[in-house]
Write a structure and sequence with these properties.
single chain; alpha/beta; eight-stranded parallel beta sheet; 9 helices; 8 strands; 35% helix; binds 2-phosphoglycolic acid
Length: 229
């Protein structure tokens, strides 16, 4: 299984270090074969050798240049980072990233050989319109995306389930992942209020290859417990 922690705008450089140390110790002791990723804020990225892979939550699709406030390839390559998260709904809705921009980022980091966690998800209104509307919405989020890319990992994250405490139901996840399986061979993660209370149920769903976790990943012990349930 893939377990990915998305810190968003939580943790600092020093607390990320402490987090990784705790998690690394736990994982080593347990010798788990899960693939574990942590996406800290950009200020906490660093060269890290361990069983956890560090990734960037966001980068601008350039090597370097005049893009105030952004980081590019040079800034992450300094730390050997080769994994990136693209298309998170918070970037799409709060930061105004269009499908075109998301696809541009995807193409750039694909050309650089990055492992790409690509996020898709529907708003509540679409979910309430039924499975077909959901699938069409998700299909549109694959526009301009090479779904055959071998280093692609797709994260299905219904927007209404993110940070709300209300995860999608087992049947909603199973149905959606089955439809996504028709569109790509990439590993399929579920994200949206994944926590210790529902992790066993979610990872047992056929077609779920892992999880992308926000709030419940912020404490390393809690995140680790999710992996050994
Ligand atoms: P959440 O966030 O686990 O806090 O719902 C998930 C995400 O946004 O990736």
């Amino acid at each position: 299984m893939i377990f990915a922690a998305n810190f968003k705008t939580h943790h600092t450089r020093s607390s990320t270090r402490a987090y990784l140390q705790t998690l690394q110790t736990r994982l080593q002791d347990a010798s788990t074969d899960h693939r574990v990723y942590v996406f800290p804020p950009a200020t906490a990225l660093e060269r890290y050798e361990g069983v956890v892979t560090l990734g960037a939550q966001n980068i601008y699709p350039v090597v370097r240049g005049a893009y105030t406030g952004e980081i590019g390839l040079d800034q992450v390559e300094e730390f050997g980072i080769k994994t990136v998260l693209i298309g998170h709904s918070e970037r799409r809705s709060l930061l105004g990233e269009t499908q075109k921009k998301v696809a541009e980022k995807f193409a750039f980091f694909q050309s650089q050989g990055f492992e790409i966690f690509y996020c898709i998800g529907e708003p509540l209104l679409v979910r309430e319109s039924g499975d077909r509307a959901v699938i069409e919405h998700l299909r549109a989020q694959f526009e301009g995306i090479d779904t055959d890319y071998t280093r692609l990992i797709v994260a299905y994250e219904p927007i209404w389930a993110i940070g709300t405490g209300r995860s999608a139901t087992v049947s909603e996840i199973a149905t959606t992942h089955a439809a996504l399986r028709e569109m790509t061979d990439a590993p399929l993660l579920y994200g949206g209020s994944v926590k210790q209370e529902n992790i066993a149920q979610i990872t047992a769903i056929d077609g779920v290859d892992g999880v992308l976790v926000g709030s419940a990943s912020l404490d390393p012990e809690g995140f680790y417990r999710m992996m050994c349930c």
